[in-house]
């Protein structure tokens, strides 16, 4: 698969500047978070909305729709944080989490998924997930937890 089609670096901006695609994104605060966060979800609308939320909060965001492209990127760049979906057609998020521990062991994982399944939540947590959120997540709780996960590492 062509990684250019499955990966997108958000052109995060500050104070009314424009992203690479020309859309204006207004920053919720002007404090830039130094950490990179990777988003992995097969739903383009989730990638776009969550990417914008994180950009507006000052994160450096990379989005991925393909688990293999994400894992290749993680192996090369060792991101501090990854937000992953569970239910994806190519590879489920639990398998991604397991493989991520091998290629980028320091990367912290936060799960963002649409299905409320206690057994999946338990398995993700047992596998090292720092947090588990259901879509749509409360923005403030989500952002607060992501910040604390990075600070804890």
Query: What would the principal axes of the Cα set say about the shape?
Result: globular
Number of domains: 1
Radius of gyration: 15 Å
Query: Given the structure, what is the number of helices?
Result: 6
Average pLDDT reading: 84
N- and C-termini, Cα separation? 32 Å
Specify the CATH homologous superfamily. Response regulator
Q: How is the CATH topology named?
A: Rossmann fold
Tell me the number of strands: 6
Neighbour order of strands in the largest sheet: 1-3-2-4-5-6
Low-confidence stretches: 1-5, 13-32
Structural class: alpha/beta
Please give the largest β-sheet.
Answer: 6 strands, mixed
Q: Helicity range of the residues?
A: 40-55%
Strand content: 15-25%
**CATH architecture field:** 3-Layer(aba) Sandwich
**Topology pattern, helix = H, strand = E:** HEEHEHEHEHEH
**CATH secondary-structure class:** Alpha Beta
Written overview of the protein:
The protein is an alpha/beta fold and 153 residues long. The chain has a single domain (3-152), classed as Rossmann fold, CATH 3.40.50. The chain has helices spanning 3-6, 44-56, 67-77, 93-103, 118-126, 139-152; strands at residues 7-9, 36-40, 60-64, 81-84, 108-113, 131-134. Strands 1-3-2-4-5-6 form a six-stranded mixed sheet, with helices on both faces. Mean pLDDT is 84; it is low at 1-5 and 13-32.
Helix-strand blueprint:
Blueprint: H1 3-6, E1 7-9, E2 36-40, H2 44-56, E3 60-64, H3 67-77, E4 81-84, H4 93-103, E5 108-113, H5 118-126, E6 131-134, H6 139-152
Parallel strand pairs: 2-3, 2-4, 4-5, 5-6
Antiparallel strand pairs: 1-3
Helix pairs in contact: 3-4
């Amino acid at each position: 698969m062509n990684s250019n089609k499955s990966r997108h670096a958000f052109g995060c901006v500050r104070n009314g500047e424009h992203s690479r695609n020309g859309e204006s994104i207004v920053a919720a605060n002007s404090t830039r978070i130094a950490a990179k966060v990777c988003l992995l979800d097969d739903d383009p609308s989730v990638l776009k909305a969550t990417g914008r939320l994180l950009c507006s909060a000052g994160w450096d965001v990379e989005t991925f729709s393909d688990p293999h492209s994400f894992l290749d990127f993680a192996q090369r760049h060792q991101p501090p944080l990854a937000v992953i979906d569970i239910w994806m057609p190519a590879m489920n998020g639990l398998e991604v989490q397991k493989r991520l521990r091998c290629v980028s062991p320091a990367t912290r994982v936060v799960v963002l998924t649409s299905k409320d399944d206690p057994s999946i939540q338990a398995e993700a947590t047992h596998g090292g997930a720092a947090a588990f959120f259901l879509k749509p997540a409360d923005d403030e709780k989500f952002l607060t937890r992501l910040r604390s996960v990075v600070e804890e590492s």
